[in-house]
Model the fold of this input.
Amino acid sequence: MNKFFKSLAIAVMAISAVGCCSEKQCGEACSKEEAVKEVIMTRRSIRDYKEEPVCREQMAKVLEAGIYAPSAMNMQTWAVRVVDNKEFIDGVTAIAVAQHPKMAEQPGFRNIFRNAPTVAFVACPEESYSGEYDCGLLSQNMMLEAWSMGIGSCCLGSVVPIMNSEEAKPYLERLQLPEGYKLLVGIAFGYPAQEIPVAPERDASKAYYIE
Ligand SMILES: Cc1cc2nc3c(=O)[nH]c(=O)nc-3n(C[C@H](O)[C@H](O)[C@H](O)COP(=O)(O)O)c2cc1C
Done:
């Protein structure tokens, strides 16, 4: 009899563990899910930062999270260059402002990286079927890891044409990108100097099951 009840108890436990979203499953797995979801849902693009560069130890964690992103055939097609050198950031800004003087008219304007003190430039091979995708995954990993430590970020496609302009060539060269690589994005990183914005609306109808 004892044996019977033991088997029954094991069977009941097994069945309840199989159910999707069952409360019984909500142990370690759910707290992990909550932690990840919290970071995903609360991350926002930050467009004003304190002047202090991101501590390099924290940036090392951000980079590590980036390179643990998946990439096609694990080719790791990215090249990432982090700049927290004010002279570099201000130099590129001066070039951009000379090209588009209106930029500097924004209140509180310090630089073209949304005032970020630290910028990660992300590049991939010009000829690669997965490079842009790989770099997107890397970038998101970096931004989420940063936000989990309270570091704000913002992808900046707008800085690419500036970095690719003739005047900015010396700065692009300083990034030492491998031959045949193109710059995809600059990612601003820093400690937020603004309130965390409300999430812009998402369109849930863009993702659904097909039966
Ligand atoms: C590839 C890419 C390029 C972007 N370029 C810019 C940019 O040049 N300037 C900017 O302020 N935000 C830029 N963004 C940020 C988006 O505007 C932002 O992610 C979007 O509005 C959603 O807001 P959220 O990040 O707060 O959720 C870019 C985002 C991505 C993914």
Residues 8-19 have pLDDT under 50 and may be disordered. Residues 44-45, 47, 154-158, 185, 199-200 surround flavin mononucleotide (CB under 6 Å). The first helix runs from residue 2 to 18. DSSP finds seven helices and four strands in the chain.
